[in-house]
Design goal:
heterodimer, A: mainly beta, Immunoglobulin-like, six-stranded mixed sheet, 12 strands, B: mainly beta, seven-stranded mixed sheet, four-stranded antiparallel sheet, 11 strands
Chain lengths: 119, 114
């Protein structure tokens, strides 16, 4: 079974400081990993994903994530946080199912991490 | 330009009164999904369509139904809403079902049940 853990419910950081939002995963094969951001009363916005290749993935709004296979982690990072980055962040993993008609192939979300960037 | 559109953004209904939420997409994606999200929790997949093939999650209540009359539109019908069905309902699409495909979400419909 696939699973995602976001060990921190909340992350607080000062504007201009680097930020990290942590994510660890458990899959039975090669992982397909995603980060989404959600602003209040809005849908999820795609930030970036890891499929294969370079372990450092660059995404939208200056975010990047580092895939670490040995630590089964996919932490989201940004060198300099903005107040406007304050939002709920979800890590997700896609499982290995190829059969469209089964529950395999679904996206498994972590519980989310609330990021607050204070001025 | 909006790619996944959900209407209405806010919906108020009465306990037991059927309600329909709608989703449309301009991406011409094959797959459309409906998620339920409660109060800062992770989204929970209710069902998805691959083209016209409907796939229900095992734990989705019978109270929830869906229709996809064409590629662009998908509807979520809640036949008899209960207080516990108050939530944000998110529609998403992806080009294909393959593992690496990105799901693109609409802005959501917040449902309030009185």
């Amino acid at each position: 079974a696939q699973s995602v853990a976001q060990p921190e419910d909340q992350v607080n950081v000062a504007e201009g400081n680097p930020l990290t939002v942590k994510c660890t995963y458990s899959v039975s094969g090669n992982p397909y990993l995603f980060w989404y951001v959600q602003y209040p009363n809005r849908g999820l916005q795609f930030l970036l994903k890891y499929i294969t290749g370079d372990n450092l993935v660059k995404g939208s709004y200056g975010f990047e994530a580092e895939f670490n296979k040995s630590q089964t982690s996919f932490h989201l990072k940004k060198p300099s946080a903005l107040v406007s980055d304050s939002a709920l962040y979800f890590c997700a993993v896609r499982d290995l199912g190829l059969d469209r008609g089964s529950t395999l192939g679904r996206l498994y979300f972590g519980r989310g991490t609330q990021l607050t960037v204070w001025p | 330009d909006a790619m996944v559109i959900q209407n209405p953004r806010y919906q108020v209904t009465q306990f037991g009164k059927p309600v329909t939420l709608s989703c449309s997409q301009t991406l011409n994606h094959n797959v459309m999904y409906w998620y339920q999200q409660k109060s800062s929790q992770a989204p929970k997949l209710l069902f998805h369509y691959y083209d016209k093939d409907f796939n229900n999650e095992a734990d989705t209540p019978d109270n929830f139904q869906s229709r996809r009359p064409n590629t662009s539109f998908c509807f979520l019908d809640i036949r008899s809403p209960g207080l516990g069905d108050a939530a944000m309902y998110l529609c998403a699409t992806s080009r294909e079902w393959a593992q690496g495909e990105t799901q693109y979400f609409g802005p959501g419909t917040r449902l309030l049940v009185l």
